[in-house]
């Protein structure tokens, strides 16, 4: 049964008015309709629900329509975390805009938005992630600050979640606003609630904060038994840290964390039936799917509709996709999925929805444009990511044996049994194995916002298939300028400490 989510969302919505990046944003004119840090400090002891409400509100904010700019801007791709998932999948070229009917993604898939700091895609991404940072800072500061020792179990768990949420936002900022990992390059302002460093700080300092936050979160959340899957628990924090280490090239550390998640998180692999319609329990639409580690339970009382991930992606929702703005798997990638692979059936073969994910992401009613008030859930992280990341980490460090075993574990249920998985994996070694793991990451996690990070980790290039409306057939390298977001003009105008682009 779905549970209501609105109980504390007011607090996050109220506090989003006070957060931003520049000094002007961090020191706003007093607005009595908005909760401020001072309000929290004056009332936290009397009403600790203010702190808990802000923490819960962070999770609400991550999934909220018009999250960054507000409803007045009416940007229908401004949908929080899942909006970034779509943009990064498009940047990787694995998600094709195969028919452009409404122009929401035209400039982005044409790689024009990422080359122009005046475009709102950059502002939305920057503003959304820094709001998560600043909301997390509010929770941390009202629990005593970065170095405070928590004396109650509840406060320990709230601190752990807030530090992990802050690390999540900074990790995404590093990936989206830096071309590739260079510890000496100044990349981002740093705000940790006690320091407001408006100038761009070296990547080494940003990553140090991410790693410290996540290590503390892993410790603080060791005994946390969450009640909702939107909450960050220890395995989710470990997953974020595994990705951070991999982005830095610290593959031994990434593998240790990935293997621990596999062994101890309690999340089984998604079954063959669950992977694609019409299998039992199929579809990536239910947060209670056992393989999902982190996700958001979308309920009808939230009132999500067209302006949502489902409203952009799913033909069985009242959506842009259903009305002709098609998002499909790149046909060159699809051609590399073996005929005996169940994941091939996730994508439509019908001419009107060709290669759209009609059997992976769908409202269970499966009526064209039928879901008008969204009740299908958002996926953020699942355990398969760490089978693939463990395999990648092993291959990157020359441990082909471990890499192949992890890949076989995943593929046995995808390719129709262990014998088929063995036949695919056994001949691989060295660079061929690395390329196969990268390919399997792209296939397995299509549409889930992970392909762009994998492209950068593997320092790869991609040649678009023929079903892209823009730049079809073009080869794109991971480190091109047009492959990273730009610090938006609003930040440059309001923050005099940043004088040049990234």
UniProtKB/TrEMBL annotation:
The SusD-like N-terminal domain covers 92-244
Compartments (UniProt record)? Cell outer membrane
- Superkingdom of the organism of origin: Bacteria
Keyword set for this entry? Cell outer membrane, Membrane, Signal
Pfam families named in the record:
SusD-like_3, SusD_RagB
Q: Which family does it belong to?
A: Belongs to the SusD family.
Q: Per its record, how is this protein called by name? A: RagB/SusD family nutrient uptake outer membrane protein
Location (main, coarse): membrane
Q: Does the keyword Transcription apply?
A: no
RagB/SusD domain location: 346-499
The source organism is: Flavobacterium solisilvae
């Amino acid at each position: 049964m779905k549970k209501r989510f609105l109980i504390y969302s007011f607090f996050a919505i109220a506090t989003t008015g006070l957060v931003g990046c520049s000094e002007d944003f961090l020191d706003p004119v007093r607005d009595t309709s908005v909760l401020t840090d001072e309000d929290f400090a004056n009332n936290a002891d009397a009403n600790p629900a203010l702190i808990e409400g802000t923490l819960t509100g962070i999770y609400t904010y991550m999934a909220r329509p018009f999250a960054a700019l507000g409803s007045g801007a009416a940007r229908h791709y401004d949908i929080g975390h899942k909006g970034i998932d779509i943009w990064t999948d498009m940047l990787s070229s694995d998600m094709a805009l195969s028919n452009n009917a409404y122009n929401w993604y035209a400039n982005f898939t044409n790689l024009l938005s990422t080359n122009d700091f005046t475009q709102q895609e950059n502002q939305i991404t920057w503003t959304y992630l820094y709001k998560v940072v600043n909301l997390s800072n509010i929770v941390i500061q009202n629990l005593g600050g970065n170095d405070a020792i928590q004396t109650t179990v509840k406060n320990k768990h709230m601190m752990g979640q807030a530090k992990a949420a802050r690390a999540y936002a900074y990790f995404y900022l590093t990936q989206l606003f830096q071309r590739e990992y260079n510890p000496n390059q100044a990349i981002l302002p740093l705000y940790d609630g006690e320091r407001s460093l408006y100038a761009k700080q070296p990547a080494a300092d940003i990553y140090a904060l991410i790693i410290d936050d996540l290590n503390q979160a892993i410790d603080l959340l060791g005994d946390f038994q969450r009640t909702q899957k939107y909450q960050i628990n220890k395995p989710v924090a470990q997953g974020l840290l595994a990705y951070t280490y991999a982005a830095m090239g610290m593959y031994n550390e990434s593998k240790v964390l990935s293997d621990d998640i596999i062994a101890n998180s309690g999340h089984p692999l998604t079954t063959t039936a669950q992977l694609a319609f019409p299998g039992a329990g199929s579809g990536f639409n239910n947060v209670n799917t056992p393989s999902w580690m982190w996700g958001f339970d979308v309920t009808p009382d939230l009132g999500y509709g067209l302006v949502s991930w489902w409203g952009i992606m799913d033909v069985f929702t009242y959506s842009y996709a259903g009305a002709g703005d098609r998002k499909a798997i790149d046909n060159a990638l699809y051609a590399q999925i073996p005929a005996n692979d169940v994941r091939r059936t996730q994508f439509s073969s019908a001419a009107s929805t060709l290669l759209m994910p009609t059997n992976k992401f769908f409202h269970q009613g499966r009526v064209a444009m039928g879901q008008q008030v969204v009740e299908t859930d958002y996926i953020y992280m699942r355990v398969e990511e760490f089978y693939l990341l463990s395999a990648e980490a092993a291959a990157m460090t020359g441990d082909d044996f471990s890499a192949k075993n992890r890949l076989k574990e995943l593929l046995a249920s995808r390719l129709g049994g262990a014998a088929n998985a063995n036949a695919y994996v056994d001949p691989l070694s060295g660079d061929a194995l690395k390329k196969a793991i990268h390919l399997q990451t792209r296939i397995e996690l299509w549409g889930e916002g992970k392909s762009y990070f994998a492209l950068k980790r593997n320092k790869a290039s991609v040649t678009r298939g023929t079903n892209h409306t823009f730049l079809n057939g073009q080869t794109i390298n991971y480190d091109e300028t047009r492959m990273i977001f730009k610090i938006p003009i609003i930040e440059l105008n309001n923050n005099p400490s940043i004088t040049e682009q990234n």
